[in-house]
Amino acid sequence: MNDYIKTMRKLVGTETLVTVGCGAIIEDEKGRILLQRRKDQNNWCLPGGVMEIGETFLETVIREVEEETNLVIYQPELFGIYSGPSCFKEYPNGDKVFSVQVIFRVKQYSGDLKQEGPESFEHTFFLNNELPSPLNSNQAAFILDWAENRAIPVIK
Predict the structure, then answer these.
(1) Residue 119 catalytic?
(2) Cα–Cα 20 to 30 A to 98, which of 13, 14, 88, 121?
(3) Among 11, 115, 5, 107, which residue's Cα sits nearest to residue 51?
(4) Catalytic annotation, pick one of 27, 122, 130, 148
């Protein structure tokens, strides 16, 4: 969690904050998607996270992917922008957010993929017809849109 969110939580408590998240659909040479199994919810999602004040969308996704996977991504292209009712989330501690999501597709990357980190148990590549369960409910739409090979950019 970045300082902005901590600061705002001190002011508004658990009330709904608007945030912007950026995530990456990282595809390997076999066309599989990289997913991470989160420690906090024990479900599968994309690498990514919340934008910090002053960052661009690209800076956010590049930073978050490297922090979570140890991969450096190149030439991210817009996959989709997601908003609406599915973007509401309440955390176990009662904090509420409405998080607009900007999702990128990445086919070029370098680095040694780390398996475990502060936020994840593991990172694994999956074919579109062999996705794991459970998917993170707030990210299932992105992952399923990818699996169904939806025309991009997806705007919801």
Answers:
(1) no
(2) 121
(3) 5
(4) 122
